[in-house]
Design goal:
Length: about 450
């Protein structure tokens, strides 16, 4: 059952959903959601607790704009019905709610609430009542995915418990199958406050879910689920097209993969610590001289603006392998770093067609591909970007980049939006913005990629 869903998703590609269905309906529903929450939570003089990030995250409703910053229960979204059943730290919105019964919705809410409870406490929760007895492979997969996120976050110097969270979900498609099961594709947008920086609202504007619901002993439960984000995707490596109920010893398989990812995390943390201790160099010592400064504030402002709302002047590669490097390249350009068509190392985007020539036409792989950009940042001299790759990880500043990866490869690039320091002024984490997955002011150490390397942007010549 889940094998069918994965093959369909692999063929169509997750980010295609972002481009069509999300672009068509979700932005209409959520256009000012984050802005309202941020403005309300930071309103001066209204509530000192909110200023410190200790109050709950508000839902966006027509009345929430003015008065419900402290409410614990979800209100009614514009032109939608309230979520059924008990109170949740989330709600279901949109035009397709009639596609599911109240009991089916409640099965999904049970999963979501339990998931965020685990991330809030960083303590594993029992999943037995969430999944059907026949879904042992799915249960084993989710137990290891949750445990991976919990253990990874516990390993960090930062306190990555959630002080608060609020999620909204909407139904993209729901279809009853011949065997009576219900296949549901959903989107999710969530806001979180992490303990390490509770005054900052972290936003995950687009997480995608596939649920399979079945009725067991008169109660709706999950027969399958896939959450299309890094932790789940990384854990599923090698089994993305397989029906997990046919996977022999699924618990052992996913436990081994979890331990591999966690061991890679530990090794990478040790490597960064050793490099820091051996370095002893300041942020700019030994770096090439730059004739022009990098406007970090402008780069970060662009990043925050276009995490979810893509800039229509550029092609969106979300459905073609990922938009992360294209997004970061745009941020650098917004920070004043010019396109580079000179010399042997080039970095440009004038159109979708690949072109490594010096002409102002097409694009280089360095603009859209993580590995090729790394090589450009490392090798470029003369005109254009000046950067230091594999820099001391503690020396990052707003606007610098972090390259991320798994044991298999480097596959992601993000931009630092805020530096997190401890009481002694030492850098312990970064808040980041990225595309695919789309996150805004999210802790770098909570991002489920076990390898990280800092690229310091020094300026340009």
């Amino acid at each position: 059952m889940m094998m069918w869903k994965m093959k369909i998703r692999n063929g169509r590609s997750l980010p295609d959903r972002r481009s069509d269905q999300k672009g068509a309906c979700v932005r209409r529903l959520f256009g000012c959601f984050a802005a309202v929450c941020l403005l309300t939570a930071c309103a001066s003089g209204a509530d000192a607790a909110q200023e410190k990030g200790t109050g709950p995250l508000p839902p966006e409703t027509e009345t929430a704009r003015a008065e419900t910053v402290q409410t614990e229960t979800a209100g009614t979204a514009p032109e939608t019905e309230a979520a059924p059943g008990p109170a949740h730290r989330g709600e279901l919105i949109g035009e397709n709610q009639e596609l599911l019964t109240g009991e089916q919705k409640e099965a999904i809410f049970r999963y979501m609430d339990r998931y965020y409870e685990a991330l809030s406490s960083l303590e594993m929760k029992d999943l037995s009542d969430l999944f059907a007895v026949s879904a042992a492979g799915q249960k084993a997969f989710h137990e290891n995915a949750w445990q991976y996120m919990i253990e990874m976050r516990r390993m960090q110097k930062s306190d990555l418990r959630l002080n608060d969270y609020y999620y909204r979900m909407w139904i993209l498609e729901a279809e009853t199958q011949e065997d009576g099961s219900v296949e549901v594709d959903m989107g999710e947008r969530n806001l979180m406050r992490f303990a390490l920086m509770p005054e900052v609202i972290s936003e995950y504007p687009g997480c995608w879910h596939d649920f399979t619901l079945v009725q067991e002993n008169g109660r709706w439960v999950l027969a399958g689920h896939m959450q299309w984000e890094g932790a789940f995707w990384n854990l599923l490596k090698g089994h993305r097209d397989q029906d997990l109920e046919t996977l022999e010893n699924a618990g052992e398989v996913f436990a081994a993969r979890r331990e591999l990812l966690l061991s890679q995390e530990a090794e990478d943390m040790k490597r960064r610590e050793e490099a820091h201790n051996a370095s002893g160099s300041g942020p700019l010592q030994g770096s090439p001289a730059c004739g022009h400064a990098y406007d970090r504030e402008a780069a970060v402002a662009y990043a925050r603006q276009h995490v979810d709302e893509r800039n229509g002047e550029w092609h969106d590669y979300s459905g073609e392998g990922g938009n992360c490097q294209n997004f970061v390249s745009q941020c650098l350009l917004a920070g004043g770093v010019p396109m580079d068509t000179q010399g042997d190392a080039r970095w440009k985007w004038y159109g979708e067609a690949l072109s490594d020539t010096s002409e102002e036409a097409g694009c280089t792989l360095s603009w859209i591909n993580v590995d090729y950009f790394y090589a450009y940042a490392r090798d470029n001299s003369g005109f254009g970007l000046q950067a230091q790759v594999d820099a001391d990880f503690t020396t990052g500043q707003k606007g610098d980049l972090i390259m991320m990866g798994t044991p298999e490869d480097w596959n992601h690039m993000v931009i630092i939006s805020e530096v997190v320091k401890d009481e002694n002024g030492r850098t312990i984490d970064y808040m980041i913005c990225s595309n695919t997955s789309d996150v805004k002011d999210f802790p770098a150490s909570a991002y489920p990629s076990p390898r990280r390397s800092l690229i310091r942007i020094l300026g340009w010549n």
